[in-house]
Sequence to fold (124 residues):
Amino acid sequence: MRSIKTRRFAYAAAALLALSATSAFAGGVLTVGNPFAPVSMDPAFSGNGRAGTFLMPAYEPLLRTRPEGGFEPALAQSWSVSPDNREATFTLRKDARFSDGEPVTAAAAKLDFAHFRRQRRAFR
Fold:
């Protein structure tokens, strides 16, 4: 049971993860092909998993899902889940930076979680 709850939390924390799409990179331009347009470029509003092909190049998750179903580090270099599965602790990579060069901090990650929670409440 813990594994299922841990996975659910990690999926939510990681937001959108690997989806199949065609892409080409040439001359500093990334072209992504997908038959579906995203609802929004804000991951909290994206509305469906298909938007991940548009969002993945711009947003790094805390964790990534491995093909066999386990997890591997992304922004988080390590993580732990409390015995009751109600709390997770992530240790962020020290070299993680936003596109403007600012460091990714625990405070920024906390703001991201709060943003997702507000949007979830708005859709209820």
